[in-house]
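Consider the following input, taken from an annotated entry for Acireductone dioxygenase (Engystomops pustulosus).
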Amino acid sequence: MVQAWYMDDSEEDQRKPHQLQPTQPVSEQELQRLGVHSYKLDADNYETDPALAKIRKENNYSWMDIITIHKDTLPNYEQKLKIFYEEHLHLDDEIRYILEGSGYFDVRDQQERWIRISMEKGDMITLPAGIYHRFTLDEKNYVKAMRLFVGEPVWTPYNRPADDFEARSKYLQSLAQTA
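Applying the prediction step yields:
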């Protein structure tokens, strides 16, 4: 499964691990309480992987595409990295499956502290609608990821503050019920 930890508040390059010292790991159960779920899948066989097919069917992930984030493949690479790293939320779940490379998703806990989730080949993550988060590559500067959606893709980030959206209210209600 994915590794996660609380982040320091250093202004160093966003692509560094930023582990709080002493290290404070975050368990899979803690991530699940925040609505974040992860899976370990066979990225070498994603086209025929029955585990991925089952997840897609159970969750109605009917649409997918693949994005490669690297300076040689993504137009406006540096600008896109800055946009991905802006704290934002979506009105739908965000589902990402790392096929090659690695990167970080950062999410806020209930006390507004940043948790960094390290993702590498074979890791799939689902972030619930309404959770504040951001994404960055790690120091390898490369990731190839599958993006999954329920129905047609909606990829609109709403930068913080975006607390007036129903998705945010529902997310906060779900946190209160699990507390």
